[in-house]
């Protein structure tokens, strides 16, 4: 199956199409992706990125990358850098449009002065607690602030002095004057500015008042000429306020459209929660391969295309839902199946000696690089008397239908010969199987066509003398609970076995040349990539991206068809 399958439903596309048909909009489509640089991007953000950049591409417009950097207490330049890297890696290009809400601070200030002049904003001396108390509830109206009726002149003077730094943090705020009895709490005189004597990662100490999200966001959209401001559902109740500001300011009004956030099973998609995992050391960092961050997925071996494909598959809707993480794994498996070269690797080695194979003989056996891609060609794999196979591929007491190796039983070595297990050598003290003595049938070399003898099982192997050693990391879900965000304490839901590190794994020699990030399939074991962080030239570390779901079935099927009828 190709990964360029048809597109899932996306109601936003339909809206824009309809507008174009009705000629409601003669403008080209301009969208924006507006992250707050207070953490790394996660898979939920990927949905928003694919949507915003995708819609812009589809309708011949463009998408701005706008940093919503209005809260200097939590934002840092390292997050700006990581966000840029991640969006680029996902395959999107914002061109010249790397923009910052902080670039509009002066303009936003002027807009606020304009509202004060219109009598639509006032400086309030209530504390944050008092403001909350005055706000009322969903069933009760709020109460007006005693400072609400200050004159325009007084408000202008106080606001200017707030900006000049005359007051400490929290002493005053600027609020819009809308309606304390509105059934929509967002319309009850929302705060526009607060005092924060905190250095900003871009504006330094130029400002000590900072705009609130609601005040900055819509006006930034307007300044940039955004046609469609796509945001997540929790902003639906903010839309009346978004529209109110733009109408009062009498400036260009983009259209806000809300869509459902992406939630994923067995993980959390909230920067705050991911931050906690990093800060408390439950993971090695934002780019830990178990993290649902873009950086983590990249390090784990996910491809940009597989993530884009996943976002396409889940579609865009108005209703909240939780997507199964298996769908994300499916997307990467499909893509890697197309592009990853196949290699042999033994994760838990068991020594195997072919007693009838000459001591110093080495054969170069031909192996297919990727059966899905004939252009990937073939390679040579060295074969010799002493091999390693997977411990799991041998059983002293095999259950019924165990078609791998057992005493007196035969199996095919992939790309090589049929072998028979003649003797089992154990550690006399522990009883552990440490070596198998086998014989091979020289008439059964794969592809040589000399014998059409068949056996049921095929196993992978590496030549002991030629193999290279590596550490391999296997990952399981970070959380044991399908909905960890719903647990009282996230930490209790962590899966203690989410990382398994295997040292002394033995790999086919050509794996030495794999570069970090490139995906390979270890036959029967899954898709892997070199870890980009812990990799050293003298120390190979591989991450498993995903296991193969049905590796066995596939190999057996392929073998049956290639063994086909002979003349
Ligand atoms: P978080 O809860 O992780 O902090 P956020 O919404 O506060 O997320 P922002 O940096 O403000 O993070 O998000 C940038 C954009 O990404 C916003 O437009 C937001 O709506 C969108 N976004 C964030 N999380 C998701 C998600 N889970 N699904 C879809 N879009 C998302
Ligand atoms: Mg946010």
Protein described:
This protein has 567 residues and is of the alpha/beta class. The protein has 13 helices and 27 strands. The strands form seven sheets. A seven-stranded mixed β-sheet has the order 12-25-26-27-23-24-13, covered by helices on one side. The chain has a seven-stranded mixed β-sheet with strand order 21-18-19-20-14-17-22, with no helix packed on it. The longest helix is centred in the N-terminal third of the chain and has 16 residues, at 43-58. The protein folds into three domains: 11-259, HUPs (Rossmann fold, 3-Layer(aba) Sandwich); 271-341 and 470-563, Ribosomal Protein L25, Chain P, CATH 2.40.240.10; 345-460, Ribosomal Protein L25, Chain P, CATH 2.40.240. The chain is elongated, with a radius of gyration of 31 Å. The model is unreliable at 551-556 and 562-567 (pLDDT under 50). Residues 34-36, 44-45, 47-48, 68, 231-232, 261-262, 269-272 line the site of adenosine-5'-triphosphate. Adenosine-5'-triphosphate binds at residues 34-36, 44-45, 47-48, 68, 231-232, 261-262, 269-272.
List the helices and strands and how they pair.
Layout: H1 11-21, E1 30-33, H2 43-58, E2 62-67, H3 77-89, E3 98-100, H4 105-117, E4 121-124, H5 128-134, H6 152-164, E5 173-176, E6 191-195, E7 209-211, H7 213-223, E8 228-232, H8 239-249, E9 255-259, E10 262-264, H9 271-279, H10 294-300, H11 304-314, E11 321-323, H12 325-339, E12 341-343, E13 345-346, E14 349-354, E15 363-368, E16 378-383, E17 386-390, E18 410-413, E19 418-426, E20 433-441, E21 458-459, E22 461-463, E23 468-475, E24 499-507, E25 519-522, E26 526-530, E27 541-546, H13 551-563
Parallel strand pairs: 1-2, 2-3, 8-9, 10-11, 12-25, 14-20, 18-21, 23-27
Antiparallel strand pairs: 4-5, 5-6, 6-7, 13-24, 14-17, 15-16, 17-22, 18-19, 19-20, 23-24, 25-26, 26-27
The chain binds adenosine-5'-triphosphate and magnesium ion.
Residues 34-36, 44-45, 47-48, 68, 231-232, 261-262, 269-272 line the site of adenosine-5'-triphosphate (ATP).
